[in-house]
Design a protein that fits this description.
7 helices, mainly alpha, two-stranded antiparallel sheet, 243 residues, single chain, two-stranded antiparallel ribbon
Length: 243
């Protein structure tokens, strides 16, 4: 666990464990190996788009995100995260991703989103395009053309893979892995922080939460669990008792 990570209070948790030992050369052909996943994900993301539109109107009129739709869309994000963690958004494991929307506890990449009991009817009208705009600009640098987000050109949501600063650093890590057999931990931690940022924005923009994504990199593979007993200030030491 990253000892320097602040406790995560965001409703979405993205975690990834740098698996090992990693093959020096397998990453060169993973683009072929993940083709079956990408074929399935095309249809899953089409369903994701449709269900997000349905959820938009449900939130607008009832203030709630239908639980069945929410669980399905979280499953799509979870499936996508496992695939890109295996491939070119992290290269964090050589274990082939499972074909499932469900959580797989023993897989090195995991994603969870806390279900919102209620959502703002007013925010649903503006958060996915206006309020999230500053984050879109940052995510464009991190992920380039490879992110789950709003495409203003064709008014839909899409997921692709590769590009941006994430892709560049993962490529560097792959080359280092190829020649040394080692994945630089500092690169992995930084890549995880950027991926975490991207998915937080995706969850916010797809109406899964009203909590605005923080402008920070929470680096490292694991997110710290919220500690309700954590104080904002250091308490004074108790007075020494009688000898």
């Amino acid at each position: 666990m990253n000892e320097h990570a602040a406790p995560s209070l965001y409703p979405l948790r993205v975690e990834g464990e740098l698996d090992g030992p990693l093959s020096r050369w397998l990453w060169l052909v993973k683009w072929i190996l993940v083709i079956p996943h990408f074929i399935v994900l095309v249809f899953l993301w089409i369903a994701f788009v449709v269900l997000t539109v349905v959820a938009f109107f449900a939130i607008l009129f009832t203030g709630g995100y239908p639980r069945a739709l929410f669980d399905f869309n979280v499953g799509v994000l979870r499936w996508s995260w496992r695939v890109v963690f295996y491939s070119y958004s992290a290269l964090g494991t050589d274990r082939y991703p499972p074909f499932t929307l469900a959580d797989v506890p023993d897989y090195p990449a995991r994603l969870e989103v806390a279900y919102p009991q209620s959502l703002s009817r007013g925010l649903v009208l503006v958060k996915w395009w206006l309020l999230a705009l500053p984050h879109y600009l940052i995510v464009a640098v991190f992920a380039g053309g490879a992110w789950a987000g709003f495409n203003a050109a064709n008014d839909d949501w899409a997921w692709t893979s590769g590009g941006g600063l994430i892709g560049l650093l993962v490529l560097i890590a792959g080359v280092v892995l190829l020649f040394t057999g080692r994945y630089p931990r500092s690169i992995f931690d930084f890549v995880m922080g950027m991926n975490r940022w991207v998915y937080r924005v995706a969850a916010y923009a797809t109406l899964m939460t009203d909590k605005y994504p923080p402008f920070r990199l929470d680096m490292g593979g694991q997110e710290s669990a919220p500690d309700p007993a954590r104080a904002d200030a250091i308490s004074p030491k108790p007075a020494p008792g009688p000898a």
